Amino acid sequence: MHERLTHDNDIDAVEMLGATGSGKTALIEQLVSRSPASERVGVIAGDVAGDDDARRYRDLGIPVADVTTGKDCHLDPERVGDALGAFELSRLDTLYVENVGNMVCPADFPLGATVRVVVVSVTEGEDVIRKHPLLFQACDLVVINKIDIAEAVGVDPDRMRADLREIDPECPVVLTSAVTGEGIEALERRLRDLQATHAHEH
Ligand SMILES: Nc1nc2c(ncn2[C@@H]2O[C@H](COP(=O)(O)OP(=O)(O)OP(=O)(O)O)[C@@H](O)[C@H]2O)c(=O)[nH]1
Ligand SMILES: [Mg+2]
After folding, report:
1. Class of domain 2-201
2. Where do the domains of the chain lie?
3. What sections of 104-156 are H helices per DSSP?
4. Residue with CA nearest ligand 1 atom 32
């Protein structure tokens, strides 16, 4: 993916992975809705089955490739490579790749994205980060989502952030709510910075 996107077409690929229901689609919807009109955006929607997420993205009026993995709990570079055929790559600036909701398998299958984002939410429990150290070592940015309901589920997002610091002291983290919009601007800024630095690194 990296060769065809970054090298050949100057596209930034942003992979979003994390537990089922953590808010990957909701956050991508927010980011796409707020992106400037000049930014040409596409999405690869990875799911085990169905086209629910793909339909949500199509409602935003952007090109979408729907990838269903059947029994597999993660996207792999081959499936993503095939999905790229659905896009006119010369006409894209940013491609979001939503991985299958899972916190174990995707860690071992890097897709070659410019930026790899792990999305967790407070509803997965205060201990979710320390239970999945490998995933958090293999990403560029962590989003702790659903902070609007943190109190209701009795979770302190700062505790989650402290766990991340133990695993990876350098990893940037943003607290968001895809419902109220809190933290989305900070997420946009972080992503822009990471896209700029990583695109040059590779
Ligand atoms: N309160 C609250 N609900 C949220 C937030 N983000 C997402 N949700 C809700 O959580 C549910 C799951 O959100 P999705 O965006 O579909 O989650 P996902 O990570 O894409 O899920 P999968 O694709 O199935 O892995 C939906 O009902 C969303 O409306 C948030 O920040 N706050
Ligand atoms: Mg989704």
Report:
1. alpha beta
2. 2-201
3. 133-137
4. 146
